[in-house]
Input
Amino acid sequence: MKKLDIIYEDKELLVVNKPTKKLTIATEKNKYNTLYHEAREYVKKQNPKNKIFIVHRLDEQTSGIVLFAKNEKLKYLLQKNWQKYDREYIALVEGKLIGKGTVKSYLKESKTLQVYSTNDSKLGKLAITNYESIQSNKNYSLVKINIETGRKNQIRVHLSDLGHPIVGDKKYNAKTNILNRLGLHANKLEIIHPLTKKKLIFEAKLPKVMTNLKG
Output
Protein backbone atom coordinates (compact mmCIF):
# COMPACT_ATOMS: atom_id res chain seq x y z
CA MET A 1 0.00 0.00 0.00
CA LYS A 2 1.30 3.41 -0.98
CA LYS A 3 2.26 5.65 1.93
CA LEU A 4 -0.19 8.44 2.73
CA ASP A 5 0.97 11.97 1.89
CA ILE A 6 0.13 13.49 5.29
CA ILE A 7 -0.08 17.29 5.48
CA TYR A 8 -1.12 17.55 9.14
CA GLU A 9 -2.03 15.26 12.01
CA ASP A 10 -2.98 15.62 15.67
CA LYS A 11 -5.15 13.68 18.13
CA GLU A 12 -8.36 14.72 16.37
CA LEU A 13 -7.51 15.52 12.74
CA LEU A 14 -5.78 13.89 9.80
CA VAL A 15 -5.21 15.98 6.66
CA VAL A 16 -4.01 14.18 3.54
CA ASN A 17 -2.90 15.22 0.05
CA LYS A 18 -4.95 12.96 -2.24
CA PRO A 19 -3.32 11.90 -5.50
CA THR A 20 -5.23 12.15 -8.77
CA LYS A 21 -7.04 9.02 -10.03
CA LYS A 22 -7.85 7.91 -6.48
CA LEU A 23 -11.37 7.61 -5.05
CA THR A 24 -12.01 9.34 -1.73
CA ILE A 25 -14.53 6.74 -0.59
CA ALA A 26 -15.64 3.31 -1.80
CA THR A 27 -18.02 2.54 -4.64
CA GLU A 28 -19.71 -0.74 -5.55
CA LYS A 29 -16.92 -1.46 -8.06
CA ASN A 30 -14.02 -0.30 -5.89
CA LYS A 31 -14.20 -0.94 -2.17
CA TYR A 32 -10.54 -0.90 -1.13
CA ASN A 33 -8.37 1.23 -3.42
CA THR A 34 -9.59 4.43 -1.77
CA LEU A 35 -8.12 7.24 0.31
CA TYR A 36 -10.53 6.44 3.14
CA HIS A 37 -9.36 2.80 3.26
CA GLU A 38 -5.71 3.89 3.35
CA ALA A 39 -6.39 6.44 6.13
CA ARG A 40 -8.32 3.83 8.12
CA GLU A 41 -5.49 1.30 7.85
CA TYR A 42 -3.00 4.01 8.85
CA VAL A 43 -4.76 4.96 12.12
CA LYS A 44 -5.47 1.33 13.01
CA LYS A 45 -1.77 0.54 12.76
CA GLN A 46 -1.24 3.07 15.53
CA ASN A 47 -4.02 1.53 17.64
CA PRO A 48 -6.56 -1.11 16.48
CA LYS A 49 -9.30 0.80 18.34
CA ASN A 50 -8.73 4.00 16.35
CA LYS A 51 -11.42 5.19 13.97
CA ILE A 52 -11.47 7.63 11.07
CA PHE A 53 -14.36 9.66 9.63
CA ILE A 54 -14.54 11.33 6.23
CA VAL A 55 -15.55 15.00 6.44
CA HIS A 56 -15.80 15.77 2.70
CA ARG A 57 -14.65 14.31 -0.59
CA LEU A 58 -12.88 15.22 -3.82
CA ASP A 59 -13.66 13.85 -7.27
CA GLU A 60 -11.58 10.83 -8.22
CA GLN A 61 -9.60 12.83 -10.79
CA THR A 62 -9.00 15.85 -8.49
CA SER A 63 -5.89 15.95 -6.31
CA GLY A 64 -5.29 17.85 -3.09
CA ILE A 65 -6.47 18.35 0.47
CA VAL A 66 -8.85 15.89 2.12
CA LEU A 67 -9.74 16.29 5.80
CA PHE A 68 -10.55 13.38 8.11
CA ALA A 69 -11.81 13.51 11.71
CA LYS A 70 -10.75 10.95 14.29
CA ASN A 71 -14.06 11.02 16.15
CA GLU A 72 -17.67 11.26 15.07
CA LYS A 73 -18.52 14.36 17.09
CA LEU A 74 -15.81 16.39 15.36
CA LYS A 75 -16.85 15.03 11.96
CA TYR A 76 -20.40 16.37 12.43
CA LEU A 77 -19.19 19.74 13.74
CA LEU A 78 -16.83 20.17 10.77
CA GLN A 79 -19.54 19.21 8.30
CA LYS A 80 -21.99 21.59 9.96
CA ASN A 81 -19.59 24.51 9.41
CA TRP A 82 -18.19 23.32 6.08
CA GLN A 83 -19.74 26.00 3.88
CA LYS A 84 -18.11 28.72 6.04
CA TYR A 85 -14.56 27.48 5.50
CA ASP A 86 -12.23 28.93 2.87
CA ARG A 87 -11.57 26.27 0.22
CA GLU A 88 -9.14 27.21 -2.53
CA TYR A 89 -8.41 25.29 -5.73
CA ILE A 90 -6.07 25.77 -8.67
CA ALA A 91 -7.23 24.76 -12.14
CA LEU A 92 -5.50 24.61 -15.50
CA VAL A 93 -8.14 25.49 -18.08
CA GLU A 94 -8.33 25.69 -21.84
CA GLY A 95 -8.12 29.10 -23.51
CA LYS A 96 -7.01 32.53 -22.37
CA LEU A 97 -9.02 33.49 -19.29
CA ILE A 98 -8.34 37.04 -18.08
CA GLY A 99 -9.47 38.80 -14.90
CA LYS A 100 -11.75 37.54 -12.18
CA GLY A 101 -15.42 37.02 -11.50
CA THR A 102 -18.16 34.88 -9.98
CA VAL A 103 -20.29 32.15 -11.52
CA LYS A 104 -23.65 31.49 -9.89
CA SER A 105 -26.18 28.89 -10.99
CA TYR A 106 -28.33 26.04 -9.78
CA LEU A 107 -26.81 22.62 -10.44
CA LYS A 108 -28.83 19.56 -11.35
CA GLU A 109 -27.68 16.04 -12.14
CA SER A 110 -29.10 14.18 -15.12
CA LYS A 111 -30.01 10.48 -15.20
CA THR A 112 -26.65 9.87 -16.91
CA LEU A 113 -24.87 11.51 -13.91
CA GLN A 114 -23.96 14.62 -15.90
CA VAL A 115 -24.21 17.79 -13.79
CA TYR A 116 -25.45 20.93 -15.55
CA SER A 117 -26.41 24.53 -14.75
CA THR A 118 -29.93 25.86 -14.65
CA ASN A 119 -31.36 29.24 -13.61
CA ASP A 120 -34.36 27.55 -12.01
CA SER A 121 -33.96 27.37 -8.23
CA LYS A 122 -36.68 24.71 -8.06
CA LEU A 123 -34.69 22.33 -10.26
CA GLY A 124 -31.17 22.52 -8.82
CA LYS A 125 -29.00 23.38 -5.83
CA LEU A 126 -27.38 26.81 -5.58
CA ALA A 127 -23.68 26.83 -6.50
CA ILE A 128 -21.34 29.84 -6.27
CA THR A 129 -17.79 29.80 -7.66
CA ASN A 130 -15.31 32.71 -7.49
CA TYR A 131 -12.40 32.63 -9.94
CA GLU A 132 -9.29 34.68 -10.72
CA SER A 133 -6.79 34.15 -13.53
CA ILE A 134 -3.23 34.07 -12.19
CA GLN A 135 -1.30 33.17 -15.35
CA SER A 136 -2.26 32.68 -18.98
CA ASN A 137 -1.08 32.36 -22.55
CA LYS A 138 -3.05 32.03 -25.78
CA ASN A 139 -3.93 28.37 -25.17
CA TYR A 140 -4.18 27.82 -21.42
CA SER A 141 -4.78 29.62 -18.12
CA LEU A 142 -3.95 28.86 -14.51
CA VAL A 143 -6.92 29.90 -12.37
CA LYS A 144 -7.41 30.31 -8.61
CA ILE A 145 -10.85 29.27 -7.39
CA ASN A 146 -12.73 29.76 -4.14
CA ILE A 147 -16.05 28.04 -3.69
CA GLU A 148 -18.86 29.33 -1.51
CA THR A 149 -20.82 26.09 -1.91
CA GLY A 150 -19.63 22.52 -2.36
CA ARG A 151 -21.77 20.87 -5.02
CA LYS A 152 -20.83 17.80 -7.02
CA ASN A 153 -18.64 18.72 -10.03
CA GLN A 154 -19.31 22.42 -9.29
CA ILE A 155 -15.95 23.84 -10.38
CA ARG A 156 -15.82 21.64 -13.46
CA VAL A 157 -19.31 22.69 -14.61
CA HIS A 158 -18.84 26.40 -13.90
CA LEU A 159 -15.51 26.67 -15.72
CA SER A 160 -17.05 24.86 -18.67
CA ASP A 161 -19.97 27.31 -18.52
CA LEU A 162 -17.41 30.13 -18.88
CA GLY A 163 -16.09 28.50 -22.04
CA HIS A 164 -12.87 27.46 -20.31
CA PRO A 165 -13.20 23.77 -19.40
CA ILE A 166 -10.54 22.20 -17.19
CA VAL A 167 -7.75 20.47 -19.09
CA GLY A 168 -8.42 16.73 -19.28
CA ASP A 169 -12.11 17.10 -18.39
CA LYS A 170 -13.68 15.41 -21.40
CA LYS A 171 -16.94 14.97 -19.46
CA TYR A 172 -17.34 18.76 -19.39
CA ASN A 173 -16.20 19.63 -22.92
CA ALA A 174 -12.38 19.74 -22.65
CA LYS A 175 -10.65 19.10 -25.96
CA THR A 176 -7.11 18.61 -24.60
CA ASN A 177 -5.40 16.40 -22.03
CA ILE A 178 -1.81 17.66 -21.94
CA LEU A 179 -1.40 16.66 -18.27
CA ASN A 180 -2.71 13.11 -18.66
CA ARG A 181 -4.96 13.92 -15.68
CA LEU A 182 -7.64 16.40 -14.67
CA GLY A 183 -6.09 19.85 -14.20
CA LEU A 184 -7.72 20.52 -10.83
CA HIS A 185 -6.04 20.59 -7.41
CA ALA A 186 -7.42 21.48 -3.96
CA ASN A 187 -4.44 23.48 -2.71
CA LYS A 188 -5.64 25.31 0.40
CA LEU A 189 -8.12 24.80 3.24
CA GLU A 190 -8.70 27.23 6.09
CA ILE A 191 -10.87 26.14 9.02
CA ILE A 192 -11.77 27.19 12.53
CA HIS A 193 -11.39 24.13 14.75
CA PRO A 194 -14.90 23.59 16.20
CA LEU A 195 -13.59 22.62 19.64
CA THR A 196 -10.41 24.68 20.19
CA LYS A 197 -11.64 27.63 18.04
CA LYS A 198 -8.13 27.92 16.58
CA LYS A 199 -7.66 28.90 12.95
CA LEU A 200 -5.89 26.15 11.00
CA ILE A 201 -4.53 26.58 7.47
CA PHE A 202 -3.56 23.54 5.40
CA GLU A 203 -1.78 23.73 2.05
CA ALA A 204 -0.99 21.11 -0.58
CA LYS A 205 1.67 22.16 -3.05
CA LEU A 206 0.59 22.34 -6.67
CA PRO A 207 1.69 19.19 -8.58
CA LYS A 208 4.73 19.90 -10.76
CA VAL A 209 2.87 18.79 -13.86
CA MET A 210 0.46 21.73 -13.37
CA THR A 211 3.11 24.41 -12.73
CA ASN A 212 4.46 24.59 -16.28
CA LEU A 213 1.96 26.52 -18.37
CA LYS A 214 2.38 25.17 -21.88
CA GLY A 215 1.77 27.25 -24.93
The chain is about 15% helix and 35% strand. The first strand starts at residue 6 and ends at 9. The chain has one domain: 6-206.
